[in-house]
Amino acid sequence: MIDAVVQHLPAWQVVLPLLGAPICILLRRPAWAWAWTVLVTWATAACAAVLLRTTLDGGPWIYEMGGWPSPIGIVYRVDPLAAFVLLIVSGVGAVVSLYARRSLTAELQTTRHDLYYAAYLLCLAGLLGMTITGDAFNVFVFLEISSLASYVLVGLGPDRRALTAAYRYLIAGALGGTFILIGIGLAYQMTGTLNMDDLAQRLPPVSHSRTVLVSFAFITVGASLKLALWPLHHWLPNAYTYAPSVTSAFISATSTKVMVYVLARFAFGIYGEPFAFEELGLGRPLLVLALSGIYVASAVAIFQTDVKRLLAYSSVAQIGYMILGISLATPAGVAAGVLHLFNHAVTKGGMFLAVGAMAYRTGSTRLEDLRGVGRVMPVSTLAFVLGGFGLIGVPLTAGFVTKWALLEALWAEGLWPVAIAVLLSSLLAVVYVGKVVETAWFHEPSEALRARAEAPVDLLLPAWILVGLSLIFGVWGAWTTGVAREAALRLLGGA
Amino acid sequence: MDVVAHWNHWVVVVLMMTGFYVIMARSNLVKKILGLNVLQAAVILMYVTMGKVEGGTAAIYLEDPHAAHHGEAEHGDGHEDDEHHDDGGHHDAPQAHATRPVTYSNPVPHVLMLTAIVVGVATTALGLALVVRIHEAFGTIEEDDLLDLEEGGG
Amino acid sequence: MTGPTTLVLALLLPLVTSLWVALTGERRANLRDGGMVALGALLAPLLATLVPAVAAGGRPRLELVELAPGVPLVFELEPLGLVYALVAASLWPVTALYGVGYLRGHHEHHQTRFFVFFSASISAALGIAFAGNLATLFVFYEVLSLSTWPLVTHHQDEEARRAGRVYLGILMSTSIGLLLLAIVWTWSATGELAFRPGGILDGHVDDGLLPVLLGLYAFGAAKAGLMPVHRWLPNAMVAPTPVSALLHAVAVVKAGVFTILKVVIYVFGLDLLTRTGASIWLMWAAAFTILAASLVALTKDHLKERLAYSTIGQLAYIVLGAALATPDGLLGGGLHIVMHAAGKITLFFCAGAIMVATHRKKVSELVGLGRYMPWTFAAFFVGSLSVIGLPPAGGSWSKWFLGTGALQAHQPALVAVLMISSLLNIAYLMDVVGKAFFLPPPDTTVRAGYREASTLTLVPPLITAGLSLLLFLGGAQVVELLRPVVGGVP
Question: I need a surface site. Which of A161, A399, B136, C292 has the fewest CB within 10 A?
Answer without folding.
Answer: B136
